[in-house]
Amino acid sequence: MRYIIQASWLMYLLLPFWAVSQPGTSPNIILINMDDMGYGDTEPYGMYGIATPHFNRVAKEGMRFTNVYSAQPVCSASRAGLLTGCYPNRLGIHGALSPQASHALNPSETTIASMLKKKGYATAIFGKWHLGSRAPYLPLYYGFDTYYGIPYSNDMWPYGYDGKLVTDTTHRKSKHPFVPWYDGNKQVDTINSFVKQDQITATITRKSVSFINEKAKGKEPFFLYIAHPMPHVPLGASAAFKGKSNAGIFGDVIMELDWSVGEVLSALDKNGLAQNTLLMITSDNGPWRNFGTHAGSSGGFREGKGSTWEGGIRVPFLVRWPEIVEPGTVNSQLVSHIDVLATLAAITGAPMPNHTTDGISFLKILKDKTALSDREVFYYYYGNNRLEGVRYKQWKLVLPHPSRAYEKGIPGTGGVAGPTPEADPVELALYNLTHDPGERYDVKEQNPDILQKLLSLAEEARRDLGDALTNTEGTGIRKPATF
Asked: What's the whole-model pTM score?
């Protein structure tokens, strides 16, 4: 009888873990996506001189990933991959869509929001969308119930990086309107000054916390996508944070983003939602290095935003999910943003899209820190469908391609960009990222078998997704919406 009682108590103690770890359960899900925040911009990833206690808390209470890739090292493409579970070039999305862009993410594509709505989730986005600048290509047409934010990057306005209005009518910025704030499909305000740039992070945080408080009163689970436009230039921080860091305005911005994370954590705690909420924090790509003191850190990786060197595409990724993710763990398994949708489908039991996707669920490595990722291969695409590299396990093949070279220019100061020279044409090279994460030592001559393996993988990608560098048309490409 004693053993029966002990077994009963054991089942009782394990019940919360069992209940939230089964497919088809409905944890709340919060995905926080920073803009241009580098791999090394917070203390859990090595930042010095900027206090980030709330990022630290998430790392302490969750899992810190060290080998996570955005879908591409640029705004729109990265967000398309994160929300759809597809390489963005499969969807016809590349680069950063301007206010005048005549294409957008096709509304026929399944997003995390539209997928989770089928499981009864309330869905919201606060912040930067950047997958279409007007209705019917705003978030409410892609599965989101609620949207308050800006449709594209905060620098897509008629001010130059020197803080002056652009009067040269041949300059692309002269054609940009001031940045609109949308509530749903209706414009409700305009960011037309640097003072209003200072209010962006606080506004998004306030809206996000209000949403959490509201949904805590109901029974339906929620998916909250917080897409901060910072620390993308032009940098802005509210009065509570200006001058508070030891790293200038960039440090102030990071401190306010950290505060924002803290406000979300506090709202979950106050409403008793923390235990059943999966929280993910990441960035869309690496830092815009030529902005110097107004840019972040790639954490020692090579180059930055707009390149497929590691500094441009490897990003921070923190996951907290009490009772599932073991606190204080570090995970070096290969994961990409395109895996998030498949992982959330596995967690909630939501149906995967009927069309082809590229993601692989990493649920098992959230539940078991010793598990191996099912992802062994990642393709580095950039520009107009250029295949620039292939990763297989720890090996990275860099294919010949044009590339920017921040290292050849002198970084700017005060918000004004330094030059971004083009590099000498990048030649075929093979790197072992275990021993050479900085991509400095080409080892293709010593590893001919690995070289051939990765070249074969590149050919597979070209047949499916195409490759502008070799004039290859892929068979698996879908069209964006055009207007």
From this structure: 0.95
